[in-house]
Design goal:
The complex is a heterodimer of chains A (396) and B (187).
Chain A (H helix, E strand, L loop, with lengths): L1 E5 H11 L4 E4 L6 H12 L6 E4 L3 H13 L4 E4 L2 H6 L1 H9 L5 E6 L13 H4 L7 E4 L3 H18 L3 E6 L7 E5 L3 H7 L26 E3 L2 E3 L2 H30 L7 E4 L6 E5 L3 H14 L4 E6 L1 E3 L3 H8 L4 E6 L9 H10 L7 E6 L9 H13 L9 E2 L5
Parallel strand pairs in A: 2-3, 2-4, 4-5, 5-7, 6-7, 12-13, 12-15, 15-16, 16-17
Antiparallel strand pairs in A: 1-8, 6-14, 9-10, 11-13
Helix pairs in contact in A: 1-2, 1-7, 3-5, 7-9, 10-13, 11-12
Chain B lengths: L5 E8 L4 H14 L4 E6 L9 E9 L14 E4 L19 E5 L13 E5 L1 H7 L10 H10 L4 H11 L5 H13 L2 E4 L1
Parallel strand pairs in B: 1-4, 4-5, 5-6
Antiparallel strand pairs in B: 1-3, 2-3, 6-7
Helix pairs in contact in B: 1-4, 2-5, 3-5, 4-5
The chains are: A alpha/beta (396), B alpha/beta (187).
């Protein structure tokens, strides 16, 4: 059934349908309505979960780590500085291979204070070992949350479901709520291979020596082996997510773009690339330029970590130019996605020019005309724009 | 830039329920066949009583641009005292429509080149049995009458559902009374 609600409500409904068992969260704008909705679901018994109040985001993730280690389905949500406050625990959750799911309505980071949207918060946490999925509208938010729980428990890696703060979190639009019974069959109960059990005591994630060592089970891995496994399993998660998405599509009739979502790219000479709702806003610009005879398309990157490099290289090889728009950057270098895309394309023998535009930081409005101007310039003189990121809309 | 999108800007005060009103209209538009419906409140820090606005975009096709509207086709004003604080017709398209909760007769409200619809929503709300100052259900009736975009018969059950536990019948009655007592003129 379709309802019209906010992006945060879509996320909360997804968590309810996924039957999360332990929720711990600390409120922060623009995440707050999501956690309020979840506490309402728990209070009204629509969701049979333990809602644990905490005094900080660090504790929220610590509770999720404990709950997940005990074998329950755990969820939290945060934004911006709250995400950074739990960063140490994010590394722990990934290293401990716990299938926690977290929503992050993206927000700029202080200082100076901002409550508005950009993507610096999650992009800056790309290297913690979590899977990062980005949604472009409310349907993708609710569907991604359900798929994220399935992916997390299949590969034993935590998953962040990210969506633009305010632009999606506080905007209302129609979306379909999947049937509970169908979600139940798509997402079976979480059965951990190892979990905290008073009847069967054990050590979890104790000090691990630099080298392998013999123990009662044979050879115990060292730290580097455990971390290499995490990396290889993250890489394998790309294909796992494609399979999960296929199954979801069969059951619910939606999906088919789990890693990247392309629009008008097949015959395009030029492709705009970005993460999040901006890739949808760009569709209007693509329509305008196509009307004027420019062969251009847009690709939204749905899964950012693990990075779907093969799919991106296949999509961009042989094009004249890829134009990367970003609401985040690796300060002192360039856009993070831009660097990743150039790196992926390095071994392609049909490398396109790649341009980088930075925009929308701290909620600065992105006007369709600005996107049109930037793309027009990139398409008109692809060879002269160069490697230095360009800022859109700066009023210096 | 897309010409298929009808843009409606709602002006109210923090706590007055402009978002709820816009959400009800969004629902009614969706069930009336408008597949693209996006409602975006002013993003940021809201204070009770301060002027706020909400953007509602309606189209037969999916809407991809989530940015606030700057050139509305329709503006809805929940509180006539806002006219002294906010330029509610800022960016309003030529021959645009102003829908106003006001207690004065239509001829007292002049917006050059614009159509105007007026109803005393505050008083009609009290007639319907609502506490004084509840106007967000009533103004929907004026919107239905003046815009012709959504039918009052479709709106009534959606209002009743949205206000479950908060005087649903009285809120629906307020919308109906306002609908039947909205005067449209201007230009």
């Amino acid at each position: 059934m379709h309802i019209i609600e906010s992006g945060n409500a879509a996320a909360a409904t997804g968590v309810k349908l996924a039957r999360a068992q332990v929720i711990a969260a600390y409120p922060i704008t623009p995440q707050t309505p999501l956690t309020e909705k979840l506490s309402e679901f728990v209070e009204s018994k629509e969701l049979d979960a333990e809602y644990i109040l905490v005094e900080s985001e660090h504790s929220a993730m610590a509770v999720c780590i404990a709950a997940s280690t005990a074998g329950t389905r755990a969820f939290t949500a945060t934004s911006a500085n709250g995400l950074l406050y739990m960063s140490e625990q994010l590394h722990w959750a990934a290293g401990a291979r716990l299938p926690i799911v977290m929503c992050v309505p993206n927000r700029g980071i202080g200082a100076p204070w901002t409550v508005w949207n950009d993507q610096q918060d999650t992009i800056s946490q790309r290297d913690v070992g979590w899977i990062q999925i980005y949604a472009n509208d409310h349907q993708q938010i609710i569907d991604s949350v359900i798929k994220a729980f399935r992916l997390a428990q299949t590969v034993s890696i935590p998953v962040m479901v990210c969506y633009d703060g305010y632009l999606l979190s506080h905007t209302y639009m129609p979306f379909d709520q999947p049937d509970q019974s169908k979600v139940d069959s798509f997402l079976p109960a979480f059965v951990p291979a190892h979990f905290l059990d008073p009847e069967n005591p054990g050590n979890f994630n104790a000090i691990t020596l630099p080298d392998v060592r013999p123990n009662s089970d044979g050879i115990a891995p060292g730290y580097i082996e455990i971390r290499s496994n995490l990396h290889e399993d993250l890489r394998a998660a790309l294909d796992t997510y494609i399979d999960i998405d296929k199954e979801f599509e069969k059951e619910f009739g939606r999906g088919g773009n789990p890693l990247v979502e392309e629009y008008e790219c097949d015959d395009a000479d030029f492709v705009a690339v970005c993460i999040g709702s901006l890739s949808y806003q760009l569709r209007d610009v693509i329509d305008i330029m196509r009307n004027d005879g420019v062969k251009i398309g847009v690709m939204g990157v749905q899964m950012y970590r693990p990075f779907p490099d093969k799919v991106i290289v296949d999509a961009l090889s042989g094009k004249k130019c890829a134009i990367v728009f970003e609401k985040a950057l690796s300060y002192g270098n360039q856009g993070a996605l831009y660097g990743d895309i150039k790196s992926a394309l390095y071994n392609s023998d049909k490398r396109p020019f790649v341009h980088n535009y930075l925009l929308g930081l701290g909620g600065r409005e992105i006007k369709t005309q600005q996107l049109l101007d930037a793309l027009t310039e990139s398409c008109t003189s692809p060879e002269t724009i160069g490697d230095t990121p360009r800022w859109i809309g700066l009023k210096l | 830039m897309r010409k298929d999108i009808i843009e409606v800007r709602w002006h109210g005060r923090g706590g007055q329920g402009a978002i709820t009103a816009a959400k009800i209209v969004a629902n009614a538009a969706f069930v009336s066949g408008y597949k693209g419906v996006v409602m975006a409140p002013t993003f940021g820090t809201e204070r009770r009583g301060a002027p706020v606005s909400t953007s509602l975009k309606i189209s037969k096709k999916k809407i991809y641009d989530l940015s606030p509207i700057t050139t509305p086709d329709i503006v809805v004003v929940l509180d006539h005292s806002l006219l002294e604080e906010v330029n509610v017709i800022d960016g309003l398209k030529e021959n645009g429509l102003v829908i106003l909760n006001g207690y004065k007769p239509l001829s007292e409200y002049k917006f050059e080149g614009m159509r105007v619809a007026v109803s005393d929503v505050t008083t009609h709300g009290v007639t319907a049995g609502l506490p004084p100052g509840v106007v967000n259900s009533g103004i929907i009736g004026a919107f239905a009458k003046a815009s012709g975009l959504v039918d009052i018969a479709i709106l009534i059950p959606i209002i009743e559902k949205e206000f479950i536990g908060k005087k649903p019948e009285k809120n629906a009655r307020a919308a109906q009374i306002v609908h039947d007592n909205t005067v449209v003129g201007g230009i």
